[in-house]
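Researcher: Go.
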Amino acid sequence: MSRIDASGRLTSQAISQVLNWQPGDRVTLTADAGVIVVRRDPHGMVTVPARCSVPIPAGLRHRCGLRPGDQVLLAALPGQDALAACTFAVVDQALRAHPLFPRREGGSS
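Model: Structure:
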């Protein structure tokens, strides 16, 4: 998990330790329905800063409804050289659509 800081950045050890992204690497960001996907891309318009965080442009934050202080669930996808950041609304929808535990007979979940 990570929190969006006041400048719209995500900071996580997964960026440098799991994905091995380095300061100066370029990334491309896309967003759709509460999920931001960051991929290392030599032609990307965003550069990973010295602190190994990911600056999320304001337009993408607004599209996903993210504000400073919001927490997101991060998923590192090393095989795709990507990082996905999901809002908790998306996580909640996924859990409701695919319950982890069966409902008890005669009762609610």
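Model: The mean pLDDT is 86.
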